[in-house]
Amino acid sequence: xxxxxxxxxxCGKEIGEFVKGLCxxxxxxxxxxxxxxxxxxxxxxxxxxxxxxxxxxxxDSDGEVAKIVAGRILSLxxxxxxxxxxxxxxxxxxxxxxxxxxxxxxIVEGGDGGVAGGVSIPFSAELSVYLRKTISDASMKxxxxxxxxxxxxxxxxxPTLEEGRQKLAEVLALLKAEKRKIELSEAIDxxxxxxxxxLLIGSAKAAKKVATRMGRKYxxxxxxxxxxxxxNDNGTTKYRHTYCLxx
Length: 247
Ligand SMILES: [Zn+2]
Prior knowledge:
Elements: E1 18-19, E2 22-23, H1 24-30, E3 39-45, E4 50-53, E5 56-59, H2 62-77, E6 84-94, E7 97-108, E8 119-134, H3 137-142, E9 149-154, H4 161-178, E10 187-193, E11 196-201, H5 204-218, E12 223-231, E13 237-246
Parallel strand pairs: 3-8, 9-13
Antiparallel strand pairs: 1-2, 3-4, 4-5, 6-7, 7-8, 9-11, 10-11, 12-13
């Protein structure tokens, strides 16, 4: 039985692994496996300091930058059906850009000389991420007094300054926690009124969740009401939702 002849058509090397007629170093020299861009631009919301990641806005952190870059790499590899293994990303902030070092390996079908299972090809590159300052839809709304809900916090007995502050801080902390998923989860204004205070809240969904959690914690039932305030562009009725918490 004759062994298939194996050598690199470019450099003539006869040992090692071969991809498309080339040894691995010669194959890598062609450098066409994955074309990573030298730089990518990510939207940065200058009001909330968040980054756009797909359809979401996420807190600006090195971890989120790495996730965004990983997403780009995977979407570049997907059409070629290249598996990405051992993806490592390091993020470094330098002045006006973010330097991102990327390394991974991918498996390409060897084929030549009847090698089964493919050949692991290492890849490393550095790219720059630039933040483009912009304003998200949610930030635009929040900065123009948009609020879908009002939370009324009321006290049966006049609270001490400390009690009032503590309840307010608690509601604000819960809204902040919801903001991870709901961009409009913010109080755009707080008003002192007789018997307590009102919070104007961007997201009705967040207001409902926070009211429910406060109610559960303190064993009270939030009182819900709504008021028609007009029509949406698509012809549906627009409401202002009110949640009242009575302590
Ligand atoms: Zn070669």
